[in-house]
Fold DUF2817 domain-containing protein.
Amino acid sequence: MNQLSTYPIGTSGKPWGAAEVAQWRAQQQPSRHYQEDVVSVIESLQTDWDVTTYGEIQYGDDYFTLYALQSKDWDPDLPCALITGGVHGYETSGVLGALRFLTHDANAYTGRMNLLVIPCVSPWAYERIQRWNYDAVDPNRSFIESSPAQEAAALIHFLKPLKTQFIVHIDLHETTDTDESEFAPAKAARDGVVFEPCPIPDGFYLVANAAKPVPDFQAAIIAAVQHVTYIAVADENGCLDGTPMAARGVLNSSVQGVCADVTNAAYTTTTEVYPDSPMTTPEQCIKAQTVAVCAGLDFVLSR
C-alpha cells in the first residue's frame, strides 16, 4: 500500500531543503576506509597497470582521490572494455568485484582487449555504506550534462576523449534489503513524494538499456553466473524491481543518467547481486561479479 514516507527527516509531502540535507549528512559516519580497502590494492597493482588519478572529490574536510587502472601498452587496434564499481558506495561486491577482477582475472585479456577499470566511483559513499553522495544526490542518476554529482562529473570528464572507443561497459551493482528499508523511504522523503514499496528481487539479475538491450549478451552473462549464485525470478506481476522481466534474470530499463550509459558502447549492462540472501555469501557475491565481467568480455571477443 502506498503511503506518505515516515522517514525521520523532513516533513511528509515537502521536499528537503538545505537544513534537512545537513541533518541527513550529520548521520552519515564513516564505518570503513577507502584508503585501506581500495587504494592500497590499487597501489599494489602499479607494476602491472597504468594507474591514473582522474579527479579529486572534496566534501567538507574530506578529500578523496579517484583512480582508474588502464591496460599497459594500450593498443588502438584492440577492442576496449570499461568496468566500473562502487557507483553506489554501499554496494560492496561491486567495489570488491572490480578489484578481484584486476588481481585475478584481467591478465587473461592481455593482448586481446584494452581494459579500463574504475573500482570505486563514489569513495565518500563507500566509507559510509551509503547510496547517495554528500549532497544527498544519487550518482547513478547523475551521468548527465552539468551533473550535480562530483563523482559522476569527474568520470564523465575523464571518459570524454575515450567514450567512442569502448565496445563494452559492465557496471557492477547490488540490490540490498536496505534499498527498501532505508534508501527508498529516504528518497521519498527527500523528494516530498509518496513512498511506493517495491519487492526486492531475490537473486542475481541484469539491467539492460531498453534502447539497446543486446539479449544474447545478457543471456551469456546470466548463463555463466548461474553456476556461482542463483538467478532472480519474476515476482507475481512478472517484474524485477518493478519492471517487467524481459528475459530470464534480465530487465530492460529506460532510466536516464545511469553509469552504464556513460559511453557509446554497443554492449552494456548493470549487474545486480543480492547479498542479503541466506542462500549466498559475500564471497559468492564477489565471484558473481567477476564471472559476469569475464562472461561479458568473452562474449564480445567471440563476436
In short: The longest helix spans residues 282-302.
